[in-house]
Write a structure and sequence with these properties.
The chain is an alpha/beta fold and about 160 residues long. Helix content is about 35%, strand content about 15%. It has five helices and four strands. It has a four-stranded parallel beta sheet, with helices on both faces. It is globular and about 50 Å long. The relative contact order is 0.18.
C-alpha cells in the first residue's frame, strides 16, 4: 500500500498478518491497522505473504518475512522509503513474527529495524490461567493449541482440524 502521492523518503512498514501462523493472508493489511499508517502518516506498507504452518512449519514463516525485510532495505529508494525508518509490525501471529524478525535482524546485523509494533503477539505456546479454558468462537484454547502444534509440527499433539 502506498500513499496517493508518490512517496519520497517515507517511513517503510512491513506489516505481517495474523491467523495463528496457520491461516490468514497478506491482503488482511487492507482492513487492519496498516491501512491507517498509509492514510494518516504517509507510510509505505509492504505485507508479506508468508508460508502458513499447515504445510510449512517453523522457521519457514520467519525466513519468508526476513527475506521481505531485506528486500525492503535493498529497494528502499525505489520504494520511496527512508532506509533509516523501516518498521516491522503485525497482529497476533504477525506480532509474534514481528518480535522474532526484529531479534533476527539485530543478531544478523544486516538491516536496522527502527521500530517494532507487535500487537497482541502470539509468542508463547503455554497456557495461562486466563487462556486455558477459553471457549470463544473466534479464537480459543483448542485453536491455540492446534496453531502451535502445526507451527512446531508436533504430530503427537495435533488436534482435530478446525471446522
Amino acid at each position: 500500500m502506498r500513499p496517493i502521492n508518490e512517496p519520497s523518503n517515507a517511513p517503510g512498514v512491513m506489516w505481517i498478518h495474523g491467523g495463528g501462523y496457520m491461516t490468514g493472508m497478506k491482503e488482511m493489511a487492507y482492513i487492519g491497522r496498516a491501512a491507517d499508517l498509509v492514510r494518516n502518516h504517509g507510510a509505505v506498507v509492504i505485507a508479506p505473504g508468508y508460508h502458513l504452518s499447515l504445510f510449512h512449519p517453523y522457521p519457514t514463516a520467519l525466513y519468508d518475512c526476513y527475506a521481505t525485510l531485506l528486500y525492503i532495505k535493498d529497494h528502499a529508494k525505489e520504494l520511496g522509503i527512508n532506509p533509516d525508518q523501516i518498521m516491522v509490525g503485525g497482529e497476533s501471529a504477525g506480532g509474534g513474527l514481528t518480535a522474532a524478525i526484529s531479534m533476527l535482524a539485530r543478531d544478523k546485523g544486516e538491516v536496522k529495524v527502527a521500530f517494532q509494533m507487535p500487537l497482541y503477539p502470539m509468542i508463547d505456546n503455554y497456557d495461562t490461567d486466563s487462556s486455558k479454558n477459553n471457549h470463544s468462537k473466534v479464537w480459543n484454547t483448542k485453536r491455540n493449541h492446534q496453531a502451535w502444534s502445526y507451527y512446531f509440527q508436533r504430530n503427537d499433539i495435533l488436534l482435530e482440524k478446525i471446522v
